[in-house]
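Collaboration report, partner site 2.

Our partner group contributed sequences for two proteins of shared interest, and the home lab folded both. The records are reproduced in the order in which they were received, starting with the first partner submission.
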Amino acid sequence: MGIVLAFAVGYFVGANAGQAGYQEVIEALHAVRESAEFEALIEAMRAHAAATLQELSVRVGQPGDEPLTPASVLERVRDLIGKARLTSPAS
């Protein structure tokens, strides 16, 4: 999504500022993508996604030796959502 947005902004600015303005935007985008801060952001997002998936696997896991299938995962998530609705206070 960010790449599409960056492309749209770059195209708009480039169209209004001519070829030189467009080239400046492209160079700025390349500088951002190659920066240590951007790399750290991507790494943090990957770590967060991994932790989230790990937590999800613990919550969705089934007792016993049954292998998880998409249908069983969906059923387990529905059960968890149903329990959460039953235990949460009414708003």
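Second partner submission, folded after the first:
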Amino acid sequence: MLKTYLYVPEELNREIIALAHSQKSSKAAIIRQALEKGLTCIEKKGNASVQVLLKIAEIGRKHKVKGPKDGVERFDEYLYGKDWSKDK
């Protein structure tokens, strides 16, 4: 295990101490546990938009929804209601 230094606000330190005391654990163990859970949460949030898009695609397949054949070429027009290529 590596040793590291961390600055925390006084109120957060009091919460860590109280939690460590109530769980009969060390401050270091509480901080490690919080960091592990926090990192897992951040990782899940990072790919949340991808998960939503995959669910939308799954719904489309389930209900056999067909999109326009020129969807890739006219993506901006369909999405934003404007053909951006005309602004050139």
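Feedback sent to the partner group on the second submission included the following. Residues 27-46 form the longest helix (20 residues). The mean pLDDT is 86.
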